[in-house]
Amino acid sequence: MTLVRIDHPYLADLGRAIQSRRQDLALPQRRVAGYVGLSVRDLAALESGFIPPQIAENISKISLDKFDTILDWDPGTASLLVKDALISVTNPNGFTIAKASTGLDRSTYPRSAWIRLGKAALAARLALKMTRPVLAYAVQSSSKTMLRFEEGRVYGDPRTAPPGDYNSEKYWLKRLSLLEMALEWEEGQARQILDGAAS
Questions:
Q1: Percent of the chain beyond pLDDT 70?
Q2: Residue 1 confidence (pLDDT)
Q3: Which of 6, 46, 171, 189 could form a disulfide with 15 if both were Cys (CB 3.0 to 4.6 A apart)?
């Protein structure tokens, strides 16, 4: 008999987000599972979304905040994923309005523009033999935030960003002049790159 996979209604979104973030950070399942107090089997089930009742019970006994710590998420991210999933089951219409990305993005520039600028900044930094922490200090930011910037992970609205991965466009627009000075760019060059007029 073929088993039909059914995503757990409250934990599937959390599991997918955990798997994606864990892989981005190159963390083995064993390390994450041990930190939060689950078995590797339980974590694997959570990430797959196919969660038998016994494993769901095990997951309910742990502190979801531990996922925030080990995965370097903003505090409360894991709990929010479960809360949003619960809302989606009990009030689908309300959830759709809260979660849909259409119409919520207040970005001045599309993601492709931020990806283009991030790549240009990374290339310029490497050409200057500058470390990421040094550039982060120059633009009054953190190394982690600078990494997100170089990867183009900048969003106009937190609701359009992956869980725990919000990197504000407004935050970066205020730092473009500092970025230009640190990378020895001409004044306005960052905006030109965003606009697609320079690379």
A1: 79
A2: 33
A3: 46
